[in-house]
Every structure is written in structure tokens, then in C-alpha cells.
Amino acid sequence: MFRLLTSCWSRLKPTEEKRRNATVIIIGLENSGKTVLVEAFQRLLPSRINNDVKSELTTLLLDEYEVAMYDLNGDLKGQEKWPNYYAQAQGLVFVVDSSDVERMQEAKNILTRLMSDKRVAGKPILLLANKQDKKDALLPCDIIEYLLLERLVNENKSKCRVEPCSAIKNLQRRNHHPIIEGLRWLLAAIGDKYEELYISQQPPTLSFPTSKSTRGSGERCSSDSFSTRIVMSKEKRQNFEKRQHFEKRQHFGQRSMEARPLKPILQVNAPTDFSPHVLAVQKDGLRLRPKKNISVTFALDEPMEEGECSGGNGAQNITEPHYNRSNNLQTPAPYVGDDLFEGNIEPVTKEKGFPFPHNFNNITPEAEILFSHHG
Ligand SMILES: Nc1nc2c(ncn2[C@@H]2O[C@H](COP(=O)(O)OP(=O)(O)OP(=O)(O)O)[C@@H](O)[C@H]2O)c(=O)[nH]1
Ligand SMILES: [Mg+2]
């Protein structure tokens, strides 16, 4: 039996040259559902569990990634050990029990401390709003408010995606289960982070090596070294070239600075499996009600920097009109017609493939919100 499992694992394992490693920690208050979520990942994905009794390490295979996921206890004693893992983690999964309103303040305090830690700041965070199957579960937008997440992501310049989910529901929906989509986003964001670092070190006139690799790939670095060379994917190269072209036009006064694509920083997915099937974002009396399958991306009010091509979400996806199933990555579409909302909202404008997100001033002075759907 053991031999059979080992041979299955080696067959499923991506070939050496394609394989990319990522280290992720899964944390949050005790009882939020971390261990049950890890078990759900194990059920949904090929996995390998460390033989040690009570091991916190699970290795998962998702697309070309081999993910080392550490499930850390959330009680006070467990929290003391979290910092030992910060430096080695490339991305974090933070779990909240959406039905536990009483502990939201506590969750906010530990998330604030976590995100401002210099070993964590800037790293992508997948926030799993777990236990959505419970009747009294908070919607993601409420959780964002309780946790003051907009402020946190802006202050720490961390990409964050909020994924409503249930660790115990719909586990047969393998590839498109919210936790799998969320993990996919996290891995893409981890990949982009490396690419950003690599690109920002380059002079403005980049010459791009050719690569056959698919989205977000290229030769990826080893898990804890930034020194490995990253090759830009074709898609990113095209985006970069478009952007250079766009900036040239700006330089000649054809567009104002406000029109530059914004850096997507906080992404919220509307619950698709649970009722109510709408995500409501309420600020200053304005209630936006995107229909189901909508994702909301809060973007830092900061234009993308020279050479920065956003990756696994938001603006990068905006150049793609539909959910791209060929590479199994979630790519929210750019254009949002006003039929997506119940309310008097102006549609996002769009010109020649570039996103010009509408600035909802009454949502927050510093943040932009991009709305897109998954096709
Ligand atoms: N209804 C519901 N219950 C859940 C869900 N996920 C976890 N639970 C329950 O929540 C309780 C705690 O789950 P655990 O996974 O042990 O919590 P944990 O975050 O690992 O807790 P610590 O290891 O102590 O930090 C268990 O009784 C689970 O069955 C969910 O999505 N829905
Ligand atoms: Mg646990």
C-alpha cells in the first residue's frame, strides 16, 4: 500500500524542470478551522503528510507547485511559535471563523501585529473567511471592516485576498473549490513577488529572455533565495511592453496620471456557494451589490512602478476578457457593465485593453476598488 502511494505521488509530482516550491503557513485563532482546512486540502489535492505523529507539515501538489504548508496552533502557546516561521514563509493563510463575531477584535489585533512584522510585511496573505456554512457567518465585506483590512494592506503594502469558504462543504468540487482557488492565487502572488523583485532591479530598457513557460512562471527561485534568476513569462512581457507604450503616451500628455493602472492589493471573492449570493460593500450609505461570482479588488492608490507588471490578480487580469481555464488561473475580467450592480454605479471605463478603474471616492480616500467577474 505504501509503495502504491509513493508511486502515485512520484507520478503526480511535476517533473523537475517545471516544479516550483513554495512555503506557506496557515495561522489564525484556535478553533477557526485551520486543521480541518488542511485536511480539506489533503482531500482535494495530492498530498504527502510527514510521518511524525502530530506533524504540522503537509506537502501539497497544485499545478506546478509543491507547497509546504505548516499548520500552526492558534492558542496563546501556539501563537508564540508563529514568529519562528515568518522568515521562511513566502505566503500566509490567515483563517478566521466568520461566525465568531465576539473574537473578531482579537483576530484583528493578531492580524495587525502579524502584518506589520517586518518578516511578513509585503508578503501575500490569503484570508480564508471560514465556516460560511453557518447561518450567522459574517460576509467578507463585514470581516474586512472588522479587521480594518483596507488600512492594514495599505500600511503594509501586502497583497491580500479574502476567500469565503467552508472547510466541511462541497469538498467534491476539486479544482474550483474556493480554498483551491485561494491557494492558487496565493501561489501566483508568491511567484509575482519574486518577479517584482527581479524586475525592479533591472534597468528600464529590459531585454526579455524568451520562455516557453506559462503564466506567472519562468524559472522560479528556490524557496528562500531571491538570487535565482527569474524569467519573465510571455504574457508579462506583453503587459510590460503595453505599459511602456502607455507611459510614452502619457509622457506626451495624452492621459493624466490618474489613468494609470493601479496596483491591486486586496481581493475579495463573493461567496458562490452560500446564501446570500451577493457580496454587499457598504460605505457611507452607498451599498454596492455585485451579483454572485464577482470578485472585488481593492487597489492601493499607487500607480504601478516602473517595470512592474502585476500578476496573479486584478490589473494583470484586466487585459484578459474571461476566466482563463487553459492555465487554470483565476483571471477576473476587466470590464464591468453596470448591470452587475444593483445601485447607481458608474461602469468602469476601459480603453485599448488598459484598465481605468473608477474611483469610488466615498469608499475610501486612498483606495481604489476594481470590480471584475470570473466569466
Ligand atoms: N461548521 C463548520 N465547522 C468547522 C469548519 N471548519 C472547522 N470547523 C470546526 O471547528 C472546530 C475547530 O476546528 P480546527 O480545525 O480544529 O481548528 P484550528 O484552527 O485548527 O484550532 P487550533 O489547532 O486549536 O488552533 C472543529 O470542531 C471543526 O469541526 C467549517 O467550515 N464549518
Ligand atoms: Mg489545529
From TrEMBL:
Q: Where is the composition biased (Polar residues)?
A: 205-216
* SMART domains reported in the protein's UniProt record: ARF, SAR
Q: Which segments carry the region annotation Disordered?
A: 205-225
Q: Does the keyword Transferase apply?
A: no
What Pfam families does this protein map onto? Arf
Domain of life, per lineage: Eukaryota
Instruction: Name the positions where Mg(2+) binds.
Output: T35
Q: Which UniProt keywords apply?
A: GTP-binding, Magnesium, Metal-binding, Nucleotide-binding
Q: Which GO terms describe its molecular function?
A: GTP binding; GTPase activity; metal ion binding
For this entry, list what GO says about its biological process: non-motile cilium assembly; receptor localization to non-motile cilium
What protein am I looking at? ADP ribosylation factor like GTPase 13A
**Which organism is this protein's natural source?**
Ictidomys tridecemlineatus (Thirteen-lined ground squirrel)
What lineage does the source organism belong to?
A: Eukaryota, Metazoa, Chordata, Craniata, Vertebrata
Q: What gene is behind this protein? A: Arl13a
